[in-house]
Specification:
alpha+beta, L-amino peptidase D-ALA esterase/amidase, four-stranded mixed beta sheet, 8 helices, 14 strands
């Protein structure tokens, strides 16, 4: 009996250790989209001043949700607004604050990401956070920015399971440095290409030292393609991928750009999305928000933008890969499980493709 109990405990320990084993990022598997190197963290936080925070909420069998906050700088954004722009590839979604950003070309609050029916509560919490900041006592209007994707497959979206404190926690926990990815924050309840999706990020450093970073919340579908390899032909997720869902793409750069130029940057992010096999289906909300942390500087000439366009495409593609690779399986509402992309089988596919390329190269 004693031996039987010991074996049972050992099995539990092994399961726990396996669950905690780290999953790779794209570059750990030799996936390096594009021509530009990454920043120190290969994250949106490589752009000086940008901070990211998460609040993950998992309760019972059907609450799988959370919040991700992106802070463009550490000061009072209402007082020190930044140039910004937004772009809609497919508008099946809810992006609060878009009209004023489009009209004035600036962003004046942090960006919150959450689940579909949580956007209004998030907006209310973000409004209160901004009004309570020192220096904002006389503010009578504030344009909060909140984006979302629909986590209904894993989460009880009809229930108001996120409190004001949850949203504030994401903001207050935001920090520089490495960004936690995968099934965390606003990525807790997402599904991507039929696999578990989540939060992903990547960055690029241009030859002149300019830094650009992208953060994504992935919850969309299509035909998964990694490093130009049609993964979807071999790796079939256990759950059916309808193609519907959404993705939020946040682009940050320290390049001095005005709102018009940032809109041009926004339009390049979907090119990175397309490289991963997205279909931008009818039921998908595909949104881009871009901002520049350069305050008061003269904008670059349009003729200097092409490297930034390239960097946006590269970082978006890699951020999506990271969201999938870092995500762990999650079981939620109704017992549905979003399975993690199988790393060992993916590695075999990548290695086989590399061998094939080597044999066919001149």
């Amino acid at each position: 009996m004693r031996n039987s109990n010991f074996a049972w405990l050992l099995a539990l320990l092994c399961v726990g250790l396996c669950a905690q084993s780290p999953r790779p990022r794209a570059r750990d598997l030799g996936i390096e989209p594009g021509i530009y190197p990454t920043g120190r963290w290969n994250a949106i936080s490589d752009v000086a001043g940008v901070r990211v925070g998460h609040r993950t909420v998992i309760r019972g069998d059907n609450v799988r949700t959370g919040v991700t906050a992106i802070l463009p700088h550490g000061g009072n954004l209402f007082v020190e607004k930044l140039p910004a722009a937004m772009y809609v590839l497919n508008g099946f979604g809810k992006l609060i604050g878009m009209a004023q950003v489009e009209e004035l070309g600036v962003i004046e609050t942090p960006i919150l990401l959450t689940h579909t029916l949580g956007v209004w509560r998030a907006a209310d919490a973000l409004k209160r956070y901004m009004l309570d900041l020192p220096g904002n006592e006389a503010v009578r209007s504030v344009n909060v920015v909140v984006g979302e994707t629909n986590s209904a497959r894993l989460h009880d979206v009809r229930g108001d399971h996120l409190s004001h404190e949850d949203f504030l926690s994401a903001i207050q926990s935001a920090e520089n440095g490495p960004v936690e990815e995968g099934s965390v924050g606003a990525g807790t309840g997402t599904v991507c290409f039929g696999w578990k999706g989540g939060i992903g990020t990547s960055s690029r450093v241009l030859p002149d030292g300019t830094i650009l970073g992208v953060l994504v919340q992935t919850n969309f579908g299509g035909n998964l393609t990694i490093d130009s390899i049609p993964v979807w032909k071999t790796l079939k997720p256990p759950s059916v991928d309808s193609g519907d869902g959404s993705i939020m793409m946040i682009v940050a750069t320290d390049a001095a750009l005005d709102a018009r130029q940032l809109k041009r940057l926004c339009r390049r992010a979907p090119l990175g999305l397309a490289r991963t096999g997205s279909s931008a289906s009818n039921g998908s909300g595909d949104f881009v928000i871009a901002f520049s942390t350069a305050r008061g500087a003269r904008p670059r000439a349009d003729s200097e933008l092409s490297p930034l366009f390239q960097a946006t495409i590269e970082a978006t593609e890699e951020a999506i890969y990271n969201s999938l690779l870092q995500a762990k399986a999650v079981t939620g509402k109704g017992g549905f499980t979003a399975h993690a992309l199988p790393i060992d089988r993916l590695r075999e596919l990548l290695e086989s493709a590399q061998r094939g390329r080597a044999t066919t190269s001149p």
